[in-house]
Amino acid sequence: MPDADTYQHLISLLDASHVDYRLIDHAPEGATEDVSALRGHPVSQAAKCIVLRVKVDRRTTRHVLAVVPGDRRVDLDAVRALFEARYVGFSDAETAERLARSVPGTVLPFSFDPELELVADPDVVAQPRLYFNAARLDRSLCLTGTDYARLAEPRVARIASPAPA
């Protein structure tokens, strides 16, 4: 599914759910820190979305969309413990794009693919305002963490750790 379809799927979901959201047009940017500055909010209010490969055992691989605050990083050890996995690492770009249905820098904190499990850090769903690129580099979306949690239905677990200084 191309990015335009992913964007439209998101907007249709939000409109059908009568969620209060705001679209923000800006210069094309996918880096969390830079796009947060363009949108005019603290980096901590951004949703950073990372597709992970989780090897539960020798035969079982799962894919997880980890959503953490923009000023933090995903804690791979926490994800490994959460899934009782042998190994957790970053997914290859091709698999991430296929499952997230968008390119890096535009990945939504929503999963529209049954093969992509969604896990969000509690600090994401607690945000009064949550910002993320809307499957496009030039448009972002803002909604409450509560509305995000209600619509996306992520598994909520502590998966973020401080970003390196």
Automatic annotation (TrEMBL):
<dbReference type="Pfam" id="PF04073">
    <property type="entry name" value="tRNA_edit"/>
</dbReference>
<protein>
    <recommendedName>
        <fullName>YbaK/aminoacyl-tRNA synthetase-associated domain-containing protein</fullName>
    </recommendedName>
</protein>
<dbReference type="GO" id="GO:0002161">
    <property type="term" value="F:aminoacyl-tRNA deacylase activity"/>
</dbReference>
<feature type="domain" description="YbaK/aminoacyl-tRNA synthetase-associated">
    <location>
        <begin position="30"/>
        <end position="151"/>
    </location>
</feature>
<dbReference type="InterPro" id="IPR036754">
    <property type="entry name" value="YbaK/aa-tRNA-synt-asso_dom_sf"/>
</dbReference>
<dbReference type="InterPro" id="IPR007214">
    <property type="entry name" value="YbaK/aa-tRNA-synth-assoc-dom"/>
</dbReference>
